[in-house]
User: Which sequence fits this backbone?
């Protein structure tokens, strides 16, 4: 007799399968209508490549690419989708960290590709196990694999962020499992590079559009395209729900070039204040995920502890394997190196309570860090240091209350630094963040300069906050929310299956014409005419 648990799991699988198939039908129906309505396609093509967005469902980024591509097709632009047909051994999403011998779920992924691209022009790629000479990688250790270059392609460097992301750690373990996976990624990357270069040479595209640009398949495609002088656009989720960020730069760095004359008027300030009032209560989502299931006040015990010190300085950390980290590491080698330096500062300043706040996403189910700040704190004996207080990722303390109590705030590259500046705090950043170029916080250029600035802030009787920090922070956040975040809310809704995955709303295919959507007009202008992917006016 089958157990109730087995029956429940089987029922859940059937419901998920039914939901996926219903969602697929919606995409198939729309793509068919687009194919029927699209005029003859001319001129140099635009290549879309986003294999790292999904497997069997449609993620936000997969939907952003599909809708943008259909919109281009409706205006007569030739679009080519570079689509995986068992071409990666394995892909990043198809890697099982605890069972690396498992093959990726290619059948489900190819079915999803058929739903998304079946009516469009597709060039598929497979896996050529012989592309890279046999025996070339076998004797290499982890450090050698990280620096491995072949035929002028920095394969190791381009695959390294994916290794860190899927293994959920920055410092990789030099063991057989890690080396084996690294070699598979490198082999897959080179096989893909050869096939993508053939496509580029044969079609001479005007633009290549990739997801993220940091996961190894898209990183390879971007490198090959740029080698041949082709403009590359990358995209990621924006800050608002169902919104995307497109850029000719690095989508994961999220650099914004805000016009010098842009100033918030009364209505814009009120709109930003309304957004912030919700965010300061933990009421916000990113990529369909809510990081704060609750937000608790600081306990009386903590406040009594803090009262025993002359001053309090919160330290906000990041998720170490996040694809933003390679951009952040400009002063320190990595976030843990920075944290180690703060232990020295804490011992030298016993009058100061340092509060280390681990990022809540560090413990997200299904994406928990294998190299965490919590483990670092345990290994360093942080709880034994009198003037250090550690807040673990699952302790949903109100970080904004910590900022309001702080003498100043320390961050690596977390968005909380931007919010701290808006709250009127002084912020010292140890890593390059998306907002540091906008003069929102201090970012010293060297370790020595960082240490000197930290010491001066700790020793000062009071810290004078530069007036332009708060002003620039508000300008930056508003621009990020309402000019750089391109909303697809007219087209998408949650799929009802997985957080962050979507299906289509009901709308006529004509809604995808750029003249009917300011988002798609902005994307057309950016892809075809060199625009900056910024909205010219605030969205309604």
Assistant:
């Amino acid at each position: 007799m089958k157990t109730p648990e087995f029956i429940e799991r089987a029922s859940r699988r059937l419901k998920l399968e039914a939901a996926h198939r219903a969602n697929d039908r919606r995409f198939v129906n729309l793509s068919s209508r687009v194919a029927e309505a699209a005029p003859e396609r001319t001129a140099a093509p635009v290549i879309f490549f986003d294999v790292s967005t999904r497997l069997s469902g449609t993620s936000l980024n997969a939907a952003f690419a599909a809708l943008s591509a259909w919109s281009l097709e409706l205006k007569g632009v030739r679009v080519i989708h570079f689509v995986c047909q068992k071409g990666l051994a394995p892909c990043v999403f198809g890697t099982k960290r605890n069972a690396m011998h498992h093959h990726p779920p290619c059948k489900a992924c190819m079915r999803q590709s058929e739903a998304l691209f079946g009516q469009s022009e597709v060039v598929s790629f497979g896996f050529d196990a012989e592309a890279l000479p046999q025996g070339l990688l076998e004797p290499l250790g982890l450090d050698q694999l990280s620096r491995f270059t072949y035929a002028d392609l920095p394969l190791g460097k381009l695959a390294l962020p994916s290794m860190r992301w899927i293994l959920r750690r920055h410092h990789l373990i030099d063991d057989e499992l890690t080396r084996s996976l690294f070699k598979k990624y490198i082999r897959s990357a080179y096989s893909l590079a050869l096939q993508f270069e053939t496509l580029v040479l044969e079609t001479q595209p005007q633009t290549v559009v990739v997801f993220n640009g940091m996961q190894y398949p898209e990183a390879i495609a971007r490198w090959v395209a740029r080698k041949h002088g082709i403009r590359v656009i990358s995209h990621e989720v924006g800050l608002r729900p169902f919104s995307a960020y497109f850029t000719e730069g690095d989508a994961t760095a999220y650099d914004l070039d805000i016009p010098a004359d842009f100033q918030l008027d009364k209505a814009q300030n009120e709109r930003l204040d309304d957004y912030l009032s919700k965010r300061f209560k933990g009421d916000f989502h990113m990529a369909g995920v809510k990081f704060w299931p609750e937000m608790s006040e600081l306990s009386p015990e903590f406040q009594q502890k803090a009262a025993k010190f002359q001053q309090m300085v919160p330290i906000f950390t990041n998720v170490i394997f996040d694809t933003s980290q390679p951009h952040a590491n400009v002063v320190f080698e990595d976030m843990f190196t920075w944290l180690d330096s703060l232990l020295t500062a804490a011992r030298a300043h016993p009058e100061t309570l340092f509060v280390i706040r681990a990022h809540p996403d560090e413990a997200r189910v299904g994406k928990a860090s294998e190299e965490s700040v919590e483990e670092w704190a345990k290994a360093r004996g942080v709880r034994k240091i009198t003037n250090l207080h550690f807040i673990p990722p699952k302790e949903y303390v109100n970080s904004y209350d910590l900022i309001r109590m702080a003498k100043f705030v320390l961050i690596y590259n977390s968005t909380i630094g931007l919010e701290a500046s808006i709250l009127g705090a002084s912020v010292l950043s140890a890593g390059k963040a998306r907002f540091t170029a906008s003069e929102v916080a201090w970012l010293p250029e060297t370790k020595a300069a960082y240490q000197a600035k930290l010491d001066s802030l700790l020793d000062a009787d009071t810290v004078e906050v530069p007036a332009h920090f708060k002003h620039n922070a508000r300008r930056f956040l508003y621009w990020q929310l309402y000019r750089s975040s391109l909303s697809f809310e007219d087209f998408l809704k949650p799929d009802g299956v997985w957080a962050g995955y979507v299906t289509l709303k009901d709308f006529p295919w004509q809604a995808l014409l750029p003249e009917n959507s300011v988002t798609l007009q902005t994307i057309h202008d950016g892809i075809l005419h060199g625009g900056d992917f910024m909205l010219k006016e605030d969205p309604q």
User: Anything to note?
Assistant: Residues 4-37 form the longest helix (34 residues). Residues 48-254+485-529 form one domain. The mean pLDDT is 93.
